[in-house]
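Feature request disguised as a bug report, sorry. It would help if multi-protein outputs had a clear separator. Right now it looks like this:
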Amino acid sequence: MEPTAKEHPKTGLGAAVGAYVIWGFLPLYLLLVKEVPALEFVGWRIIWTLPLCLLIVLVRQQFPQLRDALRSPKTMGWLLLSATLIAVNWVVYVWAIQNGNVYAASLGYYINPLVNVLLGTLLLKETLSRLQWLAVGLAGVGVSLLIGGALTTLWISLTLALSFGSYGLIRKQVDVGALPGLTIESLVLLVPAAGVTWYYAGLPAGSGFSQSIGLSLAIMLGGVLTAIPLLMFAIAARRLPYSTLGFIQFLAPSIVFLLGLTVFGEELKTAQIACFACIWGAAAIFVWDLWSRSRVRKPAAI
């Protein structure tokens, strides 16, 4: 899988690792806002992401790119779809963490690389080696094990994997920069986000944003923890082969898995243990193959 002329593996790799480390530790942040319903929190998350994006656009002088994207019906159509996908992903993920389904969330992002590989191969014509196909098959076996032993939470894992895999594919293909694209996605979601927060403010319990100063500041922090890693991911998605990006993503669910064991104390089901074993094996095979191929391509030292 050689990078194309438009791909920059070094900067793409750094951006991908940074994004996945932040996402890996995100459940710790969600403990701070666990009192806020998932849908309401995502609404506030969108509201506080937009100002930060606009500020960065101003600093980087990217308003012309933002304007061009807003004027393109084709670009806006794709960004409307990507915004919908990422909103679904956020709601399901936050709900899963809040309801003690940390392993299901982790598995979702372990399955995601399988989705990325298949999308990259079928739609982007990226090629896989025999070892990489073996990794895909082993990951598929792991997912199938969940059908028999963890069916009640499988929908969480599959929704997270499919929504984020499709989101990344769109962001890789759409002709708009990472930051302008994220800004438009936040703008598209602003009206429904405002409607959701308005609805919760009218309930007897009131809005989570008005309960305390500490909780309000924690909710506002969600804007930073949303914009920064998504911006880094969008950069990585445009600069790395999509299937390679997918397997770098194993970093985030590995962190989430460890948090589930140590911080959240969630019990592992037998089917989940078997699934994790298969997918860890798949990740090891894929990473080994990439490393071996990269060493072969390096010129001999003189």
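(second protein starts here, but nothing in the output says so)
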Amino acid sequence: MRILVFQHLDCEHPGAFRDLKRECGIDWHVVELDQGDPIPEMEPFDALWVMGGPMDVWDVAEHPWLIAEKRAIRHWIKHIGKPFLGLCLGHQLLADALNGTCGPQRPAEVGIRRVSLTEAGQNDALFAGLPVQMNVLQWHGVQVAQAPEGAEILASSANCPIEAMRVGANAWSMQFHVEAEEDTVANWATIPAYHAALVETLGADGLGAFQAESDACMDEFRTCSRTIFANFLKQMQ
């Protein structure tokens, strides 16, 4: 099996999922859109993953490749119909590509936050085996304001009603970062846009507390990523 991965920043890769892919012998092809990589012929791939990034879905003037990416996502969902997973920006791009809407997240969600599965989420194949409430890593100032037509809302939080969704039978996305690893907070804090959001939300000295909370939740993060990956693989078979 082969997974096509759209990346928008070198350090926003599949994270914890990389080891799981290797364990299962799954090949993946990474397209670094921010570095000018072309989108390949997509039909030969078994799944499409779209990762996060510091840009916003409407930043097409600064990042014109977003136009082609949204077109590719739309083609994948509407015509190829194989499994899709979007994380953070990928969650927002799925909504935008399918005529949903995105807008500012106020206040921004940066840090370890709690999300709750909806009734639909509790019965969804991707979240099978996970608790109703989970601690997750968040780092976003934009949210999906209106889900695409026909989408099921799978998870929500106090400040973000659409934390996860499914569109149709085979496209999932979530605002939070289930791919988080031990070095995720430290690595992302070096990105100017992310660092600015961290300081604005958690204060100038907030990084240490954020890292400590992430470390304390790492076992929970690993369980979540492993469960979601196993569930996703079932959808590829």
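Even a blank line would do. Unrelated, but nice: The helical segments are 17-23, 65-80, 89-97, 119-122, 184-188, 192-202, 206-216, 218-236.
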